Amino acid sequence: MEDTESTNTSLDDKNEEEFYENSARTTFSDGLMGLLRPAIEQLDERVRLTRISQLELRQQIDSLSDDLRKISDTQQIPLDFDVYVKKLMNAKRRVMMVNNILQNAQERLNRVHQTIAKETARRKSLLDSTLTATSTSSLP
Q1: Per-residue model confidence (pLDDT) at position 140
Q2: Which of 20, 80, 92, 106 could form a Cys-Cys staple with 47, CB 3.0–4.6 A?
Q3: Positive/negative CA dihedral, 89, 94, 100, 106
Q4: 70: how many CB neighbours lie within 10 A of its CB?
Q5: With contact defined as beta carbons under 8 Å apart, do 123 and 26 qualify?
Q6: Spatial distance between the Cα atoms of 4 and 122, rounded to a whole number of angstroms
Q7: Count of alpha carbons within 13 angstroms of residue 101, beta-carbon side
Q8: Domain extents for the chain?
Q9: What percent of the chain has a predicted confidence (pLDDT) above 70?
Q10: What is the pLDDT of residues 54-92, one digit of tens each?
Q11: Mean of the pLDDT values across residues 88-103?
């Protein structure tokens, strides 16, 4: 009977050590997540706003391009707007490329944010189960 008690004490000590080790790890990961989450959310918001701005710019380029074509078609003076239309189309293409890059970056940020949320939830459930196991094993 005494052997059982000494073994239980040893297991209790081991559970406490694991609890404190897991607690330290969880505290560290929570702190790290706390540092990263605001930066990721801020970056995500800025990417979203930039994409909106890029869309508005693309629409304005389309409108200006249409206006230049109309002016060119109605003018009696032989002005060559084709060069400017081509430049606008080139700018539109670049805006679309930047928009695609931003969209890919935002998708990656969303995946990182989801991974952080999953890891936080996993660690929280692990901590909760460790706390429950520790409190159950310490009962007489």
Answers
A1: 56
A2: 106
A3: negative
A4: 11
A5: yes
A6: 34
A7: 8
A8: 14-77, 79-134
A9: 76
A10: 889 889 988 988 888 887 778 766 667 778 888 888 988
A11: 88
